[in-house]
Design goal:
- The chain has ten helices and eight strands.
- It is an alpha/beta fold and 218 residues long.
- It has one domain: Aldolase class I (TIM Barrel, Alpha-Beta Barrel).
- The protein has an eight-stranded parallel barrel with strand order 1-2-3-4-5-6-7-8, surrounded by seven helices.
- The longest helix has 15 residues.
- It is globular.
C-alpha cells in the first residue's frame, strides 16, 4: 500500500556530498515506484536524473547557491540557466542570509529576482530562507521579498544548518504569503507524523530523504 496523496507532495531528496551514481539511480527508481513529485539532486546529477526519468511525470529539482547562499547573484543565475538546460524544472535557491540580517533588502530581492529571471518561466523557483538562522521578523521579511521577486515557493531549510522544518515556522510562512505562494518544509522531517503535521500547518510540498518510509506506512 502506498499513500499516493502524500507521495505527490514530496521532493525525494539526496544532496549528500558523497552521493554516488548508484545512489541517484536508486533515488530515481524509488520516485517512479512511489510517484513522488520530484527528485531533488545536486546540479551535477541533473542530466543523469533527466535520462533516468524520461517518459515519466516525475520532476527534477536542483539546488542553487547551496547550501550557504553566499555565491553572487551572477553565479546563481548562471547555475540556474545551466540546470534548466540540463533538465531541471524546479529550482531551490538559497538566499543571501547575511544580507538579509544586514537589512540589505534590495540586494536580497534582486538576488532572488536574478534566479527568477534566469528561470524565465521554464522552472518553478523555491526560495530557501534557512529559518533556523532567522528571527520571526526576518522570516516574514524573507517571505515577502521572495514574493516581490516573483518566486513560486518559500522553503524552510537546506537541511545543512542548525535546524530544519518546524510547525511554527510553516504556520508563520503560510500566514505571510497566504495563498499567493507555495510553502515547502524541508530539513529534519523523519516520520510520517511529522510530515502530516507540517502539511496541516500549511506546507504543500515536503523535502525529505525519508520519503519511502512515509508513503509505505499507510
Amino acid at each position: 500500500m502506498i499513500d499516493q496523496e502524500l507521495a505527490a507532495k514530496i521532493d525525494h531528496t539526496l544532496l549528500k556530498a558523497d552521493a554516488k551514481e548508484e545512489d541517484i539511480r536508486k533515488l530515481c527508481d524509488e520516485a517512479i515506484k512511489y510517484g513522488f513529485a520530484t527528485v531533488c539532486v545536486n546540479p551535477c546529477y541533473v542530466p543523469m536524473a533527466k535520462h533516468l526519468l524520461q517518459d515519466t511525470n516525475i520532476g527534477i529539482t536542483t539546488v542553487i547557491g547551496f547550501p550557504l547562499g553566499a555565491t553572487t547573484s551572477t553565479v546563481k543565475a548562471a547555475e540556474t540557466q545551466e540546470a534548466i538546460e540540463n533538465g531541471a524544472n524546479e529550482i531551490d535557491m538559497v538566499i543571501n542570509i547575511g544580507a538579509l540580517k544586514d537589512k540589505k533588502y534590495d540586494y536580497v530581492r534582486d538576488d532572488i529576482k536574478a534566479v527568477v529571471h534566469a528561470a524565465n518561466n521554464k522552472a518553478i523557483v523555491k526560495v530557501i530562507i534557512e529559518t533556523c538562522l532567522l528571527s520571526n521578523d526576518e522570516k516574514v521579511k524573507a517571505c515577502l521579498l521572495a514574493r516581490e521577486a516573483g518566486a513560486h515557493f518559500v522553503k524552510t531549510s537546506t537541511g545543512f544548518s542548525e535546524g530544519g522544518a518546524i510547525r511554527d515556522d510553516i504556520v508563520l510562512m503560510r500566514k505571510t504569503v497566504e495563498d499567493t505562494m507555495g510553502v515547502k518544509a524541508s530539513g529534519g522531517i523523519k516520520t510520517k507524523e511529522d510530515a502530516e503535521a507540517l502539511i496541516r500547518a500549511g506546507a504543500n510540498r515536503l523535502g525529505t530523504s525519508s520519503s519511502v518510509s512515509f508513503v509505505e506506512s499507510v
